[in-house]
Design brief:
It contains 8 helices and no strands. It is mainly α.
Length: about 140
């Protein structure tokens, strides 16, 4: 919401609750700007019908809750779910490896990258995050 709409809604609150000070209007204006106009408008009306006295923190909490409830599933949430599902598939594939296969994969990586031998030679490939990632990367390249 733009600053003009936020100021209009803050002044609307001042009209509904006469005890609202100009400092409070300024605070509400800044806080309202973070939310959708429709959410703020509906929550102000709902709040007024339920409460005779303005409780700013309660009003802002209700607005934030409603904003969260109305928020569409954004692209980032969908991408996060897809990445999490991919990670689970990768972990499931690694979980099927026997200890001998883990060691075989580790040796193949160390032979392909001799500079890593001093750093990773004594690491358990099932516990080392670096080795797990390298093994997974190597297995994905084979596919």
């Amino acid at each position: 919401m733009g600053p003009d709409e936020a100021l209009r809604l803050a002044n609307h609150v001042k009209g509904l609750y006469p005890e609202t000070t100009s400092d409070l209007v300024t605070l509400l204006c800044h806080k309202f700007a973070q939310f959708d106009k429709a959410v703020v408008e509906s929550e102000i009306d709902s709040f007024r019908s339920r409460f005779e006295i303005l409780h700013v923190s309660n009003l802002l909490r209700r607005i934030a809750d409603e904003q969260q409830r109305r928020a569409p599933v954004n692209q980032h949430d969908e991408e996060k779910r897809e990445l999490e599902a991919e990670r689970r598939r990768e972990e499931a594939a690694l979980a099927k490896l026997s200890p001998e296969q883990w060691n075989k994969e580790k040796e193949a990586i160390l032979e392909a990258n001799p500079d890593l031998r001093t750093f990773l030679a004594n690491k358990d490939p099932r516990k080392s995050v670096i080795l797990r990632a390298l093994i997974l990367d190597q297995r994905l390249k084979k596919i």
